[in-house]
Amino acid sequence: AQSVTQLDSHVSVSEGTPVLLRCNYSSSYSPSLFWYVQHPNKGLQLLLKYTSAATLVKGINGFEAEFKKSETSFHLTKPSAHMSDAAEYFCVVSVIYTDKLIFGTGTRLQVFP
Amino acid sequence: DAGVIQSPRHEVTEMGQEVTLRCKPISGHDYLFWYRQTMMRGLELLIYFNNNVPIDDSGMPEDRFSAKMPNASFSTLKIQPSEPRDSAVYFCASNPGGGYGYTFGSGTRLTVV
Question: A111, A17 in Cβ contact below 8 A?
Answer without folding.
Answer: no
